[in-house]
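Exercise (ungraded).
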Amino acid sequence: MSDVSLFIPCMVDALMPEIGESVFRLLRRLDKKPVYHEEQTCCGQPAISAGYNAPAIEAAKHFISIFENDEAIVSPSGSCVYTVKYDYPILLADDPVWLKRSESLSNRVYELSQYLVDVLGLSDVGSVFEGKVAFHESCKNLRGLGVSDQPKKLLQGVRGTEVVPLNGAEICCGFGGAFAVGYPEISEGMVKDKSTSFIESGADRLILSEPGCLLNVSGYLEKHHPEKRALHLASFLMESQEGGN
Amino acid sequence: MTMSAREAIFKQLNQMDPPDLKPRPPEIPQIDLPDDIDGRIETFMTELTAKAGVAHRVENEEAARKLLTEIAAAEQINTILIAGDDTTSSLNLKEWGEKEGVSVLEASAYEDKNDYRKDGFEAADAGITGVDFAFSESGTLAIRHNSKNARLISLAPPIHIAIFPAERLYRYYEEVIPQVYAEQEGIPSQMTFITGPSMTADIAATPTIGMHGPIKLFAIVVG
Amino acid sequence: MEIKTEQFVEIGKREMNDPYAQTFLKILPEVLGVMREVGMASYTDPKGASTYGASIRREAVARMPELLEQLESSLIANGTRVIWARDAEEANEAILKIARDNNIKYVTKGKSMVTEEMNTNEMLIKNGIDVYESDLGELIIQLLKRPPFHIVGPAINVPVEEIRDIFLEKGIMTEPTLDPTELGRAARIFLREKFQHLEMGITGVNMAVANTGTIINVENEGNIRFTKSSPRIQVSVMSLEKVVPNMKDALYILRLLCRNCTGQKLGSYITFDTGPKKEGEIDGPEELIVVIVDNGRSKQLLNPELREAFHCIRCGACLNRCPVYAKVGGYAYGWAYSGPIGQVLNPLLLGLDRTQDLYRASTDCGRCKEVCPSGVNHPRIFRYYRQQDVEGNKELRSVKRPWSERQSFKAWQWAVQSRKNWDRSIRMMRPLLNKGISSPGLRRWVKPLNSWMKSRNLQTMPAKTFHERWKDLEKEQSQ
């Protein structure tokens, strides 16, 4: 049993901790021994996105010092993984020592589905769900990390589940962090489209592998279509575990 | 003394770091297209037709003239403006016009540009030219304009009829165009690539064939 | 063109509430996107084609001083007159002088984005010279006095009723019609007369080939051919970055441009001009003048972070992919360039102070960058602009961020480096956030929360963070 280090995004930690719990329990079911470094705070993505590089560098260094000795670091957020893999080397480009430390970390950080499929070689994680699901392709996962086959493989591996197509699956849901509150009308238009596609797909559940997207879409659905459920991939796989949660 | 615009612009530009040029990635291979003459002609005709051009293939010059007669009748062409390039000359269009009752205006015969423009814009029902090259990859005609193949002939009249021997049909632009531009001498004042009649979709995204340029394009491949 | 970049939000909202615009935006970008895919599928390796195209543009921009010098020599050698212009004023002055020296009463214009930057039309008209935009879409927006809605189809969103009305009003036609083909024919007849008697034409430039001094234009309508070939004077206006090294590269870019723009293998007409007409030629310009315009570019070219902005070949593919453009349409971007490339170019040319919203109204989803045949990384440039506002950049005319934001990130920086501080912040925020979530009245004072909850629910912040639950989870693990 090798250790897997949990990288819990700040948004999950504070607003949706049950996603973190699902990741933990799922990895346990797969005979892993997840560790959680309690010093972790935030990868720095909000600062980078807003142009605040100096604070982001502090966050990066904090992150690297905590995680750099781990063999495998797993996160239920592709955008956070993207930040560590691709934004950190740019942030630290002028500091050769930290750059090296950052680069050595890059290929040990995984988004959850990447880890389960590419590293553990799994597609069936022991989940069962009779029904239809649709999958939203988060921008940073799909276009940033190139992760798309992996979550879909895991969904197809859920016994009894039919994965149905989602119109405009790879179009942005309108979250974009600060964008959602900075340009609320445009954001609402985009999340409304995503909600409409979900409803039109005939799926029982909308599965997302990005916490920000989930917060956005489920927030909109709860207000306008409370009967329609959107949930995180980890939560879905965990709650449909054979033998119960 | 104040700097000229040129000096000021270059003064700024020359502060750019010297280019750090990595070698280019490999060129991608050309689309695979049939190289035999029949294959080229077929591809050319398919491409041009898809772009709303009308493509014909005829055996020889006699057949070409016959086809012209048919087109003239169908399109009600009474007056044509013609180029004086090798193809149109060898077709002897003046004689054809006399025989068929079509009035033939030769672009090379004009002294006054405004007379030429007047006839090109107002009198000619069709312009007839040869072409220097044609390309099957996109159904394209290429004309090197000069005193023998003036620009407005294939532009002002509402119909353009282009005639050319099959030997001038290539697959890819790169087969001949870079050579045209290799020597300063050989470079025409204007070369035009023509791929179909004029068109627009600017109004409500509704495609319309025929905008400012010719409304119809006929391409006749001889051979 | 009036600069309305500061009105992005206002105009965006207006367009989102315009049913006609929305119908168009729901259909058009997607259709153009599909056409692009079909066009690109004609390559053996579509991704490789874009990668190679990007390498040509990267090289052309990196070698710009050398290539522009070579272009100038080649142009002069083939008898073209070259005029350099630092800014709009110099370029317009030169164009006006040519018109005046030659007693020009009117010009026809081929589409030229750089002349829209420079308000060249307004300048000529003010000086008593009529200007007829000859591209159908450009003609319509000229008559309606509107900015372009889409880089490829500037009037594509205008209802036929409005076109009929303005055509009748301005004497383009006398008989009313709503049929797009009939309207096009009316414009054809109207402009045909102008082309026939044309003495001076003004065009833009798609590409300028350095080693031969060749000016290249792409079109479907034929108006550029007329504008170049009917008059005795041709003025072609280009911005610095239009230069490419040689014909082989130009042919390559032409294929990419046409496929990315409209899905065609080639536009109906491509003209390659190398010097004025030769002896014995009856048509073609006696004088060919190329105006090379800087208008703020050389300054920004010095910045390696911004060099990619100059790779753009104006294909418009990014517009068709952008989910934000699909909501607000072209007008919201407020200037000559719209969509993601507008968000890259307008700030660079006008200053960050006038374009604050343009590079912030993006989720950085990356669909633009993914499709770009010239290697522009739009989201990276948006982030760069935001960074410049934070760090301060005089060249770009950055704007200091709001005090509240700066303080928030100061606090964030303090908290992020220590879990203890982070926890303290959460414990402090939790009750405040939850109060705000449950009280619409209180929410009004917290703009982000209020904006969010106008259209979405927000669950209250759980009593325990994941961090706080870890001890229990660890216990689970040892069982």
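Further reading is listed at the end of the chapter. For now, observe: Chain C has three domains: 1-41+310-401, 44-295, 416-478. Residues 251 and 262 of chain C are 17 Å apart (CA to CA).
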